[in-house]
Amino acid sequence: MMTFRTALVIAVIGAFACAALTLGGADAHPGHVDKKLFPARWYQAQLDLSTSYNSPVALTCHPNCATNWLPAIGASLADWNSQPDTARFVADEVFDENEDVVIRVQDIVLGEPGILGIALTWDDAGAFCPLDTCVTYRWGEAWIGDNAHSGVYGTAVSKQATLSHELGHLLSLRHESVNADESQLYECGQDDTGAIPVSIMSYDCINPVAVGGSGIYLVQPFDVCGVNHAYHEAPFGFAGCANDDSDGDGYFDAVESAIGTSAVDPCGNNGWPSDLHTDPPSDNKLDVQDIISFIAPARLVDTSPGPGSNYSARWDLAPGPNTPFTSHINIIDLTTLLNGTAASPAYPPMFGGPRAFGKDCPFPP
User: Fold this and answer.
1) What is the rounded CA–CA span in Å between residue 53 and residue 57?
2) What is the Cβ-side half-sphere exposure of residue 212, based on CA atoms within 13 angstroms?
3) Domains in the chain and their CATH numbers?
């Protein structure tokens, strides 16, 4: 069966390789932020996907393919499997090419040295079908290019990011930070509609910082939101969607993911995004010292990600550039502490209504 599938891919891949980079469209879900999804779904509603990869048949890159890739593969699978959704990649210690999902690492993917990875799918009849034209996914494969993972892309976290991105495609997730037909790429946390949550499905989000990306390598709440829309199960609800504020600190979970704070801890510098200044008596409190921290000891206002920049996502409280500003950290981020925005109100639920400025967090850090 696998021999047939692989041969069929080689026969049609010339047309598909280009299409794979230009897939688009969006799937709207009333009451929640839109997440771009492919129309097809897996043959089983509860996504316990048997997964194979640990074999010389699958890991063919040179040299030391298993040594160089097994840690990243394990980390990616563990990350996806830890999310509050129904998707689980169930690794099989005995390699089987007929598992639901197969992960392959090759020196060069499809004869193109620049390809970091690609996701491929087959239907119930065993016929190859592009991600956006399948009706039902029966088998899927993630093909990863080892040679392309060199230089700044050769780190363990960059390898993990690539695989998690391709596995996201196999979970029906489209690219983010793109317009509808993917003819235009946008910065991490942006698309043609404006600000969106960060996503492992965005090229700019997972590109290394050294090349101007955000260096994200972990599955994001927005990605979990997409899985929970595509494969909804009551126990998980719509966990991860941008209008969830799990800890009541006034910042949506997806925003906290972009900032780098915990979405389940409302207080302290690592939990409450507004708590920027950590020295007593300003620790675990929102006060003027938090405002001053935007300009001293380092000037963070008017900075964006990039080499040599003072930018820190921790001060990007309303993530991404906010119209009419072009820099990621701007006056909107600063005023979020005082007046709030639609995504990051300054009147968090944990205070029961009053404005947060000038108050100690009601819980220990």
Assistant:
1) 8
2) 4
3) 2-228 (3.40.390.10), 245-365 (no CATH)
How many angstroms separate the CA atoms of 136 and 257, rounded? 32
pLDDT exceeds 80 at position 7 = no
Yes or no: say if 269 and 211 are a contact pair by the CB < 8 Å rule: no
pLDDT(123) > 50: yes
- Please tell me whether the overall predicted TM-score, pTM, comes out greater than 0.85 for this model: no
Q: Give 220-239 as a DSSP string.
A: -HHHHHHHHHHT--TTTTTT
pLDDT confidence of residue 10? 39
User: In sequence order, what are the residues at sequence separation of 6 or more whose Cβ sits closer than 8 angstroms to the Cβ of residue 287?
Assistant: 277, 357, 358
* The token pair that represents 106 in the structure block: 């090759």
pLDDT-based confidence at 27, cuts 50/70/90? very low
| Cα separation, 32 vs 228, whole angstroms | 11
Lookup: tokens for 124? 């119930």
What mean pLDDT is reported for the chain? 86
Question: Cα 189 vs. chain centroid, distance in angstroms?
Answer: 10
The pair of three-digit structure tokens given for residue 116, joined into one six-digit string: 């970091």
Q: What is the mean pLDDT of residues 122-142?
A: 95
Please check whether residue 295 is in contact with residue 301, taking contact to mean a CB–CB distance below 8 angstroms: yes
Q: Could you tell me which residues come within 8 angstroms of residue 140 by beta carbon, excluding any fewer than 6 positions away?
A: 49, 100, 101, 102, 119, 120, 121, 122, 170
Q: Is 112 helix (H, G, I), strand (E, B) or coil?
A: strand
- E strands in the chain: 41-42, 48-52, 88-91, 101-106, 117-122, 136-137, 139-145, 190-191, 194-195
Q: How many helices (H) and strands (E) does the chain have?
A: 8, 9
8 Å CB contact between 174 and 38: yes
DSSP bridge partners of 48: 88
Average pLDDT over residues 270-283: 93
Does residue 78 have a pLDDT over 70? yes
DSSP letter string, 239-259:
TT-TT--TT-SSS-HHHHHHH
